Amino acid sequence: MALVVIAGVLVAPQARADEVAYLINVTVRPGYHFANADDALGYGRGICDKIAHDRPYGLLISDLKADFATADDYQASYLITQAANELCPSMIWQLRRSAADHQPPTS
To answer: What span, in angstroms and rounded, lies between the C-alpha atoms of 30 and 63?
Structure first.
């Protein structure tokens, strides 16, 4: 019995995408103006694709700020974070490495 418990502790749970959580988090927050759920999911998956292709964090921020016509770094960062956490959690460390040296512009 103890062997089964130890084996269960050593195996980390798999990170899974949670589209519903992503949709709730990005559609109730003002500022994104997605036409519908499919549009929001498509945009989030596009962020995941950019992370997978090693797009630097600063450029991800710039992309979102341009796409949503905002100067708000937090708004851009929030959407990137939601996409990574909920749609492509296996890429969170890749995103964190890219963002490690990012410095937001000073006002």
So the answer is: 18
Query: Rounded to an integer, what distance in angstroms lies between the CA atom of residue 104 and that of residue 77?
Result: 10
Q: How far apart are the first and last CA of the chain?
A: 60
Q: What DSSP state is assigned to residue 90?
A: G
Banded pLDDT at 18 (limits 50, 70, 90): confident
Torsion angle of alpha carbons 65, 77, 71, 106, nearest 10°?
Answer: -130
The pTM of this model reads 0.81
8 A C-beta contact, residue 103 and residue 50: no
Question: What does the block give as tokens for 50?
Answer: 């950019």
Residues contacting residue 39 through CB under 8 Å, at least 6 positions apart: none
For residue 44, name the pLDDT band (cuts at 50, 70, 90).
very high
Residue 75 corresponds to which tokens in the numbers above? 């708004």
- The label of the residue with tokens 């519908």 reads 36
